[in-house]
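Quick illustration for those who missed Monday's session on complexes.
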Amino acid sequence: MKQYYKRISMPARYLINLVLIIAFLAAGNAIVSGGVINRAQSSIILQVGIYIILAVSLNIVTGYLGQLPLGHAGFMAVGAYAGAIFWKSGYGASLPAGLSIIIGLIFAGIVAAIFGIIIGVPALRLKGDYLAIITLGFGEIIRVCIINLPSITGGTPGLMGIPKYSTFLVVYIAVVISCAIIHMLMKSRHGRAILSIRENEIAAESCGINITYYKVMAFAVSSFFAGIAGALYAGYQGLLTPASFDFMASINILVMVVLGGMGSMIGSIIAAAVLTSLPLALQALNTYRMVIYSLLLIIVMIFKPSGLMGTYDFSMSRILERIINFKQIRADKKAKKAGDANG
Amino acid sequence: MDKLVKVPSNALIPERDLGKLPILDIRHLGIDFGGLSAVDDFNLTIGRTEIAGLIGPNGAGKTTVFNLLTNVYHPTRGSILLDGKDTAGKKTYQLNKMGIARTFQNIRLFKNLTVEDNVKIGLHNATDYSMAQAILRLPVYWKEEKKAHEKALELLSLFDMQDMADWKAGSLPYGAQRRLEIVRALATKPGIMLLDEPAAGMNPSETAELMENIRKIRDTFHIAIMLIEHDMNLVMGICEGIAVLNYGRIIAKGSPEEIKSNPMVIEAYLGKKGGAKAHA
Ligand SMILES: Nc1ncnc2c1ncn2[C@@H]1O[C@H](COP(=O)(O)OP(=O)(O)OP(=O)(O)O)[C@@H](O)[C@H]1O
Ligand SMILES: [Mg+2]
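Prediction with magnesium ion bound:
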């Protein structure tokens, strides 16, 4: 935008976003707890929230960093079991619920991030597509470990009796904070470093960017939020089975990111919301889910390979700026058209 | 322009840089690719504010020398002293922090990012706040980001590109892309900047302007510049010392006048047929 357009100042932007977030929270809470929708519908909302965190966190690595991991569900599993075990333990149970939830979520994220660093350091130091293979293996190994450690994880039958902490309020706040942190991170020198690696590794290195550090960092942050989503999932289901974290679960999340547009947070959010709620809402669709996904992917890859939203970043303030500058922008467009016609 | 003088390692640097540590001291540098030696026994010293040229026919090994100097390729033989410090075993990003920046023959911009962000990525290590400070949007974040924004515009204005700050780098015209690469390299605050064919694809007026700007950059920032270029007007016009590479070996070193009249150089460029391409 040119200089003379009215701009919304930074503090005002944050205020606008804050007001919107609280308004959404109030509306959502009223709808969920006010009996406007039934139990099945409100459980869909919770799942949408969990998948939004999974998609935006995977997007850090696929969209922003430009790598292809295939084991996001593995990190989700690590976080799910870490959170569940904490909440079931004496420590978790002795704390007031609110504090226990917060500590459990952060603990789940940290454990998942540690796994992310352990996997990421060897996989990301190598040039080439080793990450896909190694994360694919990791996802499977985690599942096998869960099955074979019944004393800790409950084995194949599952881990039961997890406190159902994932209320609308908890999930909503977790979604907002996760998205906000990822957004703040990406709009900083660290975020730019991550993007520069996607754009051109050699050039990034020549600009003094430690690419291994930033790759591992992005991967760890991505795993951290996958872990939080996993813990939310545990608190939503009340029961964890290893089968929930198989390869298809990873692919599911990847499809959301690819469809939504790699590198677009709003794209990931929309795709996660649509792809989670549609099959749940229309049970008939569920049988054909994988067929529909494949078709959708093929169609998008043919007509819009960059995904539905491309790399577009949503900004409420930018939309408002367009509205307040509407007259000026229209006048400029007309002037430009006239100029083009003459020239 | 100062005249070139001999220094102990039998190298040439401009007179005004005498008595100061050379920015680059390259000795017996060499690399083999599968038994074939692409660069061999490469010796060169570059003064702290020198504009040096590296020329030679296609495939002579010029870009390979740049890749060796930035440790994109690791040398098989020889040593490099950058500002007096040995660069052996260092990573590319560490060498940048030590003071070497470069551009690329086949432009490597961050195409999908804005012009301003390209420069800000060059300013990465000069922008000083932690991840936690960024996420919490503490005052230091705003202060440093503002500083980076202003610095980016200031650097862009060197090439009169400040109005293109919001453009996607990939959508810039070719010449502007090459200029942006120089700005980005300059943003990393190098002691020496390596330019790989900066005038490639530019028209004569753009090239003339580039020559002026390269000289201006050297005079404003007091840095050394080493450039690879096929455009002899540019090389002969701004380089103080020139090294000629053929089949990976330096066949001549000297001032533009010495190089122009060197029979080995003329032969390397034109074969036995004779002619005057090197003077073009
Ligand atoms: N990674 C590599 N592996 C094998 N051979 C290489 C590699 N990089 C360069 N070479 C070879 O080294 C030689 C020198 O290449 P280089 O790119 O340095 O030439 P140049 O002087 O920059 O040429 P030009 O003027 O065409 O840019 C060429 O024969 C090239 O094939
Ligand atoms: Mg070359």
